[in-house]
């Protein structure tokens, strides 16, 4: 069917098939293609046409347009097209690679050779026609169309707001970095692999740390009966509204509704009572990694405040108070370590005030952080000393070495997926997520820069070699060798996903046995030799500490001191937290909370955004590290004798 002339031609000569197409409006298109070219359908799109409307011409149509016949279609016949029916003369780009084209001018029994240049600039010019040189194969057209789509994607892909538009920015970052997918139950979110990997890294480190304290992992059921839940009425009272219940199975009502664990004290401690008989059964230390459900009514924010979240909860029982207290602080140090060493988030260790502590316990220690962008305090994790409150209620008692009955001293502590939210808020920038290296699923992304002077296969082999070298160094590395995305698109994508280091390999790097290193967090760019790739571990470590240092400076800038109410409110309204001397009286604390709410310029300012926050300041913690307060030094608010420094702030 193709008008191919089966004759021998010299090297450098292409033999050409001539194809005349026609659309529904009787516009004709003449295609000159190399005989080996698979003429596809997609290239019509690049001419703004649809292949569905286009057919090969029939005998009468060929006669009509070119005054020629089947088997005799050729560009010279266009001279006969006096009515300008041929709209386009399309030359296969392949033909530009040959010196001469073999064509049959009158009939397919004779052949002439002509250069493409002569055809274009002598013949076609003479009859006042032009032609278009395009790629005719589907794969070529596909690439071109993909690249067009790429460009469009680049637009829609980019984060459309700056970090200063914080709520909107946060929502965009978590979606575009592929951390979160939305779900149709309010307050519940899908953690995508990019986010879940971070949680796995947290689990790994924290699990290793608590094992050094002989804590054992367990699993307790997620349901609890109303009777169970109410064993310890006081501590539950304030949380009651948040407990979710299962009341049905199939179409029937359950005899007794079951609560879904919001925390597991009342699930675990009846078992503790059975397991603890003598002082030899102590200490008892268990932990579980689970989900929990708290039906919050405040506005949900992915990671930060969700109705279901993941955590670990640790529970220990000891024979002495000192031992339990020591446990509380050891765990608090572990929490600080996870934040600092893994998430590169600085925290302040402290003790909660009486009104902010866990009501069921004796005292609550906490790691608090401050989100630099808005100066909001964020409780990072808590470690409680429960005293003997629960052991008395659940009868967790033992015979001490003098055969006296004694109640156990307990601790409980929890670390949640909220920590991931803090990390995103600290490190993300206008271009998206910035991951500290130790939690990044890919620490390094390799991107080849395809170039016409560079053999693609060789380039890919080089990239693969580099990947192998890095894998041997236990680095988490990915080679993005997709050929349907441009390097620019890839840069963008991996930048948004926060990959700490990008390695680019283009013609220059290839030739010089180098790679170009681009650091995500400070955009630093430099070349390193392939033999120096073993430096990357150190470079990633340096990045981690540089990120932590930067974050710590930003946090410190959000802590101001105030000696009186006026200074306090000024600092609060400038989005700072405030460290003050304080009398440590609950009444004074409540007054500050109330009054700061009334006088607050920020009140409800972020309602309508995604993150709803109030304007009043509360106590975040009394930092463990603080100066001593001397006799005569006064509380900043009420003027009574101060006892401790306390950190105040608006909070999440
Ligand atoms: C919500 C509903 C019911 C917090 C709740 O911090 C009960 C509770 O007891 C509740 N929200 N809490 C306090 C949890 C205390 C404690 N539990 C072990 C922790 C760490 C892990």
UniProtKB/TrEMBL annotation:
Highest taxon above the source species: Eukaryota
Single GO term (MF): ATP binding
Entry's Gene Ontology BP terms: prolyl-tRNA aminoacylation
PROSITE patterns (alphabetical): AA_TRNA_LIGASE_II (PS50862)
InterPro entries named in the record: aa-tRNA-synt_IIb (IPR002314), aa-tRNA-synth_II (IPR006195), aa-tRNA-synth_II/BPL/LPL (IPR045864), Anticodon-bd (IPR004154), Anticodon-bd_dom_sf (IPR036621), Pro-tRNA-ligase_IIa (IPR002316), Pro-tRNA-ligase_IIa_arc-type (IPR004499), Pro-tRNA_ligase_II_C (IPR016061)
Gene Ontology cellular-component annotations: aminoacyl-tRNA synthetase multienzyme complex; cytoplasm
Uppermost EC category: ligase
Pfam families in the record: HGTP_anticodon (PF03129), ProRS-C_1 (PF09180), tRNA-synt_2b (PF00587), tRNA_edit (PF04073)
Entry keyword set: Aminoacyl-tRNA synthetase, ATP-binding, Ligase, Nucleotide-binding, Protein biosynthesis
Enzyme Commission number(s) from the entry: 6.1.1.15
Residues covered by the Aminoacyl-transfer RNA synthetases class-II family profile domain: 198-436
HAMAP family in UniProt: Pro_tRNA_synth_type3
Protein name in UniProt: proline--tRNA ligase
């Amino acid at each position: 069917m193709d008008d191919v002339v089966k004759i021998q031609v010299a090297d450098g000569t292409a033999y050409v098939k001539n194809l005349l197409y026609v659309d529904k409006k009787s516009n004709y298109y003449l295609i000159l293609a190399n005989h080996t070219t698979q003429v596809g359908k997609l290239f019509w799109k690049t001419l703004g046409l649809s292949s569905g409307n286009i057919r090969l011409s029939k005998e009468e149509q060929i006669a009509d347009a070119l005054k020629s016949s089947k088997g005799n279609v050729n560009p010279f016949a266009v001279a006969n097209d006096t009515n300008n029916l041929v709209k386009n003369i399309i030359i296969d780009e392949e033909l530009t690679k040959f010196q001469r084209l073999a064509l049959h001018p009158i009939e397919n029994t004779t052949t002439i050779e002509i250069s493409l240049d002569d055809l274009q600039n002598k013949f076609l010019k003479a009859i006042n026609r032009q032609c278009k040189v395009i790629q005719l194969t589907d794969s070529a057209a596909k690439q071109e169309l993909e690249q067009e789509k790429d460009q469009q994607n680049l637009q829609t892909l980019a984060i459309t707001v700056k970090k200063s538009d914080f709520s909107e920015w946060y929502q965009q970052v978590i979606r575009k970095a592929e951390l979160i997918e939305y779900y149709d139950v309010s307050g519940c979110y899908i953690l995508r692999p990019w986010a879940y990997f971070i949680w796995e890294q947290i689990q790994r480190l924290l699990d290793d740390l608590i094992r050094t304290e002989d804590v054992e992992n367990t699993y307790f059921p997620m349901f609890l009966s109303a009777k169970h839940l109410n064993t310890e009425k006081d501590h539950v009272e304030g949380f009651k509204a948040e407990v979710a219940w299962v009341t049905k199975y199939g179409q029937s009502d359950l005899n007794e509704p079951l609560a879904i664990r919001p925390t597991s004290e009342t699930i675990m401690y009846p078992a503790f009572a059975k397991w603890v008989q003598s002082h030899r059964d102590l200490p008892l230390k268990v932990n579980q990694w689970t989900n929990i459900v708290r039906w919050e009514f405040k506005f949900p924010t992915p990671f930060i405040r969700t109705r279901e979240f993941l955590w670990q909860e640790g529970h220990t029982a000891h024979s002495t108070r000192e031992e339990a207290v020591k446990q509380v602080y050891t765990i608090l140090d572990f929490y600080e370590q996870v934040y600092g060493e893994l998430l590169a988030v600085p925290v302040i260790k402290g003790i909660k005030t009486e009104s902010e502590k866990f009501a069921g316990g004796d005292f609550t220690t906490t790691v608090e952080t401050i989100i630099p962008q808005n100066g909001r305090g964020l409780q990072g994790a808590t470690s409680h000393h429960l005293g003997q409150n629960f052991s008395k209620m659940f009868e967790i008692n033992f015979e001490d070495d003098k055969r006296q009955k004694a109640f156990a001293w307990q601790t409980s502590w929890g670390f949640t997926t909220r920590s991931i939210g803090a990390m995103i808020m600290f490190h993300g920038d206008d271009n998206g997520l910035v991951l500290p290296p130790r939690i990044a699923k890919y620490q390094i992304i390799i991107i080849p820069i395809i170039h016409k002077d560079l053999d693609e296969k060789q380039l890919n082999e080089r990239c693969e070699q580099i990947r192998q070298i890095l894998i041997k160094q236990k680095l988490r590395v990915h080679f993005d060798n997709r050929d349907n995305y441009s390097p620019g698109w890839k840069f963008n994508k991996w930048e948004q996903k926060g990959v700490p280091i990008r390695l680019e390999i283009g013609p220059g790097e290839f030739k010089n046995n180098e790679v170009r290193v681009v650091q995500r967090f400070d955009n630093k760019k430099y070349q390193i030799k392939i033999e120096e790739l073993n430096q990357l571990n150190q470079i990633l470590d340096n990045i981690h500490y540089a990120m932590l240092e930067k974050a710590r400076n930003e946090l410190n800038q959000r802590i101001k001191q105030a000696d009186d109410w006026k200074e306090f409110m000024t600092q609060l309204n400038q989005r700072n937290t405030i460290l003050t001397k304080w009398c440590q009286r609950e009444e004074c604390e409540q007054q500050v909370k109330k009054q700061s709410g009334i006088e607050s310029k920020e009140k409800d300012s972020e309602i309508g955004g995604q993150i709803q926050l109030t304007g009043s300041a509360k106590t975040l913690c009394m930092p463990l590290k603080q100066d001593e307060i001397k006799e005569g030094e006064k509380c900043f608010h009420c003027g009574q004798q101060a006892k401790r420094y306390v950190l105040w702030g608006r909070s999440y």
